[in-house]
Design brief:
With 274 residues, this protein is mainly alpha-helical. The protein is 67% helix and 0% strand. Helix 2 packs across helix 4 and helix 11 crosses helix 12.
C-alpha cells in the first residue's frame, strides 16, 4: 500500500507525457523511481508468496481458523491448492537465483528477467537433481543470451541437459552452449523471411484474431491455443521490444491467483503486497 500511495492519488495521476524533452525532468524522474519500486516488489512477490505458503502449510499455521491447508488457500487467498503447490515448488530456485552473486552484471538481469514462468521451467531440474543444478543452468543461459532468455528457452535447455552434467558448472555451461548452437543451426536452415510478407501477415493476424475467434479456439482446443498464443507473444515481445507480462498458467479449476504471484504477473495478492 505504501508503494502504491507513493505513486500518487488516483485522480492526480498523469495521463499524458509531461514535457516534450527527450530527457526526463526531475518530477518525471522521481515518478519513474516510485513506479519501478512498485514493479520490483511485484517481481519478488511470487517466490516470497511460495515461501510463506510453505511455512503456513508445514507449521499448520492455518489451524486456528481452517481445518485444512487446502481450505486456507481457497478461502483466504482465493487460489487452488494446486497452484499454491506450484508456488511452493518454485520459490527455492527463485530465491537462490535472486541471492546469487555471479558477477558481470548478471545480478541485474536476474532481477529484471526472472519471473514465475521462467522459474517454473526450472522446477523439474530442481526436483530431479538440485537447486544448484538449476542455478548453474539458468546463469549459463544468461551469460550467453542475457536479457533474451525466455521461459521457452529455459524449458528447452532443461530438457536438453544431459543427466551427468546436472550439478556440474562447466559441464552445464558446455551443454547450454551446445543447445543454443543447435537452435541457431535450425534457424540457419530456415529460409529468410520476406519482410513485406511478414508485415502483411501480422496485419492480417491482428484483424483475424479477435476475441470471438480466440474464444472459439479455446473451446475447441484450449491447451494448444494457449501454447500457440504464448509462443507467439514471446517471439513478438522479444523481437519488437514491446514488453509483455504473461500471467502464470493456472489449473483448469483455478478461481484466482495468489498474493504476489508474478513473473511480473499482477494479481489481487500482489496488489496487497505492493
Amino acid at each position: 500500500m505504501e508503494l502504491a500511495r507513493a505513486i500518487g492519488e488516483a485522480d492526480k495521476l498523469p495521463t499524458t507525457q509531461l514535457t516534450d524533452t527527450p530527457a526526463l525532468i526531475a518530477q518525471e524522474h522521481d515518478m519513474l523511481l516510485k513506479c519501478e519500486s512498485a514493479l520490483e516488489n511485484l517481481r519478488f512477490a511470487f517466490w516470497a508468496a511460495g515461501k510463506a505458503l510453505q511455512v503456513v502449510r508445514d507449521a499448520r499455521l492455518y489451524r486456528a481458523e481452517f481445518a485444512t491447508f487446502e481450505e486456507y488457500t481457497q478461502v483466504k487467498w482465493d487460489i487452488t491448492p494446486q497452484y499454491a503447490g506450484k508456488l511452493i515448488r518454485t520459490w527455492r530456485v527463485a530465491e537462490a537465483l535472486f541471492l546469487a552473486r555471479p558477477g558481470g552484471g548478471l545480478e541485474t538481469i536476474v532481477s529484471k528477467k526472472l519471473g514465475y514462468g521462467q522459474a517454473w521451467e526450472l522446477v523439474p531440474l530442481v526436483e530431479e537433481h538440485s537447486v544448484k543444478a538449476a542455478t548453474y543452468l539458468y546463469l549459463a543461459l544468461l551469460r550467453t543470451k542475457g536479457a533474451g532468455v525466455t521461459a521457452a528457452l529455459v524449458k528447452g535447455a532443461v530438457q536438453a541437459l544431459p543427466a551427468d552434467a546436472a550439478g556440474h558448472q562447466k559441464k552445464t555451461e558446455d551443454a547450454v552452449l551446445d543447445y543454443l548452437a543447435s537452435l541457431e543451426g535450425e534457424q540457419e536452415q530456415q529460409p529468410a523471411a520476406n519482410a513485406g510478407k511478414t508485415v502483411r501477415a501480422l496485419t492480417k493476424a491482428s484483424k483475424t484474431f479477435d476475441s470471438r475467434a480466440l474464444h472459439a479456439a479455446m473451446e475447441h482446443s484450449p491447451e494448444k491455443t494457449r501454447q500457440a498464443a504464448r509462443a507467439l507473444i514471446e517471439v513478438l515481445s522479444e523481437t519488437t521490444g514491446i514488453e509483455v507480462i504473461i500471467a502464470p498458467e493456472s489449473e483448469p479449476e483455478e478461481a484466482g491467483a495468489p498474493a504476489g504471484a508474478a513473473s511480473g504477473e499482477q494479481t489481487e495478492g500482489s496488489a496487497a503486497a505492493a
